Automatic annotation (TrEMBL):
GO CC terms of this entry: ribonucleoprotein complex; ribosome
Protein name: Ribosomal protein L18
Gene Ontology MF: a single term: 5S rRNA binding
Source organism per UniProt: Gossypium stocksii
SUPFAM superfamilies documented for this protein: Translational machinery components
UniProt entry keywords in alphabetical sequence: Ribonucleoprotein, Ribosomal protein
A GO biological-process term: translation
InterPro entries: Ribosomal_uL18_bac/plant/anim
Keyword Cell membrane (UniProt): no
Amino acid sequence: MRDRRIKEGRLIQVQIVWELKRMTVLKRYVLRLFISLKYITANVVDRNNGRIIATASTVEHSIKNSLECSRSCNAKAATVIGEVLAMRLKVEGLEQGQGRGIHVDVNKEVEKKGFKNRTKVWAVVNALKNHGVKVVLEDNEDNPSRPSF
């Protein structure tokens, strides 16, 4: 009787581990944004390893010098960050996210960054999509923060 419970317990543990691995594989690459009053940074993170795959920021001199963003960054700067990030993902060969895409939870990003920064969040996401990066949006369609085009 005891041996049977141990075997069933191990089977449940194996199933849980398999489910966790499956969930992390489905959302392997995730876009993370950091927006301050002066700077915008976008990172694509590999959730399996916890490593940054590609990054772009207005802190970089080459990007900073090309922008007219002296005291505050605007949606134009966010678009440039999205374009640079898309180019860097293409160089790494990850513009398709290994077939699964780059996942973005727009609601979460807008909540974290504040309602005023939603145009910057959408500017980065749209720039990635326009430059051929497969972006998987993790929001529902009746999202009030989504701009209407």
